[in-house]
Design brief:
One of its GO terms (biological process) is lactate metabolic process. The protein is of the alpha/beta class and 320 residues long. 43% of the residues lie in helices and 19% in strands. The protein folds into 2 domains: 140 residues, Rossmann fold; 168 residues, Lactate dehydrogenase/glycoside hydrolase, family 4, C-terminal (L-2-Hydroxyisocaproate Dehydrogenase, Chain A, domain 2). It has 11 helices and 14 strands. It binds 3-acetylpyridine adenine dinucleotide.
Amino acid sequence: MARPKIALIGAGQIGGTLAHLAALKELGDVVMFDIAEGTPEGKALDIAESGPSEGFDAAMSGTQSYEDIAGADVCIVTAGVARKPGMSRDDLLGINLKVMKSVGEGIAANAPDAFVICITNPLDAMVWALREFSGMPHNKVVGMAGVLDSARFRHFLSLEFGVSMRDVSAFVLGGHGDTMVPLARYSTVAGIPLPDLVSMGWTTQEKLDAIIQRTRDGGAEIVGLLKTGSAFYAPATSAIEMAEAYLKDQKRVLPCAAYCDGEFGLNGFYVGVPTVIGADGIEKIIDIKLTKDEQAMFDNSVNAVKGLVKACKEIDPSLA
Ligand code: A3D
């Protein structure tokens, strides 16, 4: 059986890391597309030359031509610009919306059956626009944010409790931005919910609140340290986890920016919700009941996403 084909649209910091991880995990052959001539070709060759030491079998190539992504099983989109210090994700909207148009059309024309994972920011609006421009089925176009946000939350919690990250599970809902909603009561250490751990005296509510705020600011913390761009190792790992769930029909339960059509009381918006990813893409959205306080935080986050989608429609009236 032929190896799966993975197209990476954007060969920058995240794109290069995605290609390296896909090769190391032997998820399939990788084609990197980027408008910057030489960048995808150079990264593909460099990664291919690590193959003899790593011992992986995966073909790597770079291109400026959409025809070369033909028949891709998975497309991961990072094309666009990333944040610099002092910028919010929303500042990227105007530039990246134009990029989503060319990318959406390029994927639809050449790889219409692919599972498409968008990473470009501002995420919840860009994945919505990418889906609109591509016209592809909603269950096959999804945004990566929740896996990363919950990984950050899990990492900080493991430091606080002094336990393995593997035994910490965390739940983050809502838009990928300052209004994201980390859900403490569904986040656990080996199944013990965080509020119980506070009652048991393992941590304090103040410490937990600080961890939740650090999770919300997780992207900005790294932008502030790097100064020249934004996070790329953990974002790439998160998207690879989603791609693998699709390619191997793993039925993983992962928080993703998925198209809600009735779920969570939303009609026609992409927002971070718990999903099941398998061979049909987003196979299910798990529509959990929120408490009054959680619902208020979720509504606030959804309103921020709605504002960004409205701005997209104003910039490009073909989306209205
Ligand atoms: P960067 O290293 O700048 O790579 C972006 C690449 O896109 C560059 O190589 C560009 O040449 C290329 N590009 C620009 N326009 C086009 C186009 N029209 N077609 C094809 N390629 C194009 O950025 P990065 O890899 O660090 O980040 C990529 C995106 O991911 C940015 O928008 C970030 O804000 C976003 N991001 C999202 C998350 C989430 O959790 C959602 C996390 C981190 C970064």
